[in-house]
């Protein structure tokens, strides 16, 4: 069960790790002004609470040949199993890098990373082949302005320091 509130030291650890995820514990401890053992204990607690969900490398899509980012809005026919069917099918599609259940004009919003228009056309066909999907509208990204930046921890509720 997560702790209800975190303090400024937890926030400092999280902020540092968002910018420098490969920081060794000794260097992290120094950056947040803790002993290495105390810093490691807090970091492990943040991991156990699920606040730190994992660590990953940030990859350059263009250098990997994924030249196009497409946002795809889906409308689906509704039933008791619709979301599960759509979610399971999308989870198996490697070009789907994010999927959100949304409110508004669409039911799902997908982010696709594809190398070219031909691949997008194939992926779009696969998505339209998912039974409950009744409409798909794509928007191609011209340029990414902000990409997976650190979360705004200033707005996060903390314990009184």
What are its keywords?
161 residues; single chain; 2 domains; alpha+beta; Arc Repressor Mutant, subunit A; four-stranded antiparallel sheet
For the record, the CATH architecture of the largest domain stands as 2-Layer Sandwich
Specify the number of helices: 5
CATH superfamily of the largest domain: Lrp/AsnC effector binding domain/regulation of amino acid metabolism (RAM) domain
Q: Low-confidence runs (pLDDT<50, min 5 residues)? A: none
Main beta sheet: strand number and arrangement? 4 strands, antiparallel
What structural class results from the helix and strand content? alpha+beta
Distance between the termini: 22 Å
Q: What's the average pLDDT?
A: 90
H/E topology pattern:
HHHEHEEHE
Tell me the strand order in the biggest sheet: 2-3-1-4
Layout of strands and helices, then pairs:
Layout: H1 8-19, H2 25-32, H3 36-48, E1 68-76, H4 82-91, E2 96-101, E3 108-114, H5 117-128, E4 133-140
Antiparallel strand pairs: 1-3, 1-4, 2-3
Plain-language structure description:
Helices cover 34% and strands 19% of the residues. It has 161 residues and is α+β, with helices and mostly antiparallel strands. It has 2 domains: 8-57, Orthogonal Bundle (Arc Repressor Mutant, subunit A), CATH 1.10.10; 62-140, Alpha-Beta Plaits (2-Layer Sandwich), CATH 3.30.70.920. A 4-stranded antiparallel sheet has the order 2-3-1-4, with helices on one face. The protein starts with 7 loop residues before the first helix and ends in a 21-residue tail after the last strand. The model has no long low-confidence stretch (mean pLDDT 90).
């Amino acid at each position: 069960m997560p702790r209800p509130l975190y303090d400024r030291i937890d926030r400092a650890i999280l902020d540092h790790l968002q910018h420098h995820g490969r920081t060794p514990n000794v260097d992290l401890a120094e950056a947040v002004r803790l002993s290495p053992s105390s810093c490691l204990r807090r970091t492990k607690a943040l991991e156990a609470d699920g606040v730190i969900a994992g660590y990953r490398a940030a990859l350059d899509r263009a250098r990997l040949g994924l030249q196009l980012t497409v946002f795809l809005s889906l409308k689906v026919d509704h039933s008791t199993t619709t979301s599960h069917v759509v979610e399971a099918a999308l989870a198996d599609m490697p070009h789907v890098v994010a999927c959100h259940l949304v409110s508004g004009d669409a039911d799902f919003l997908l982010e696709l990373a594809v190398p070219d228009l031909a691949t997008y056309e194939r992926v779009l066909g696969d998505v339209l082949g998912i039974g409950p999907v009744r409409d798909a509208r794509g928007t191609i990204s011209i340029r990414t302005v902000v990409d997976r930046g650190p979360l705004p921890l200033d707005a996060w509720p903390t314990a009184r320091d």
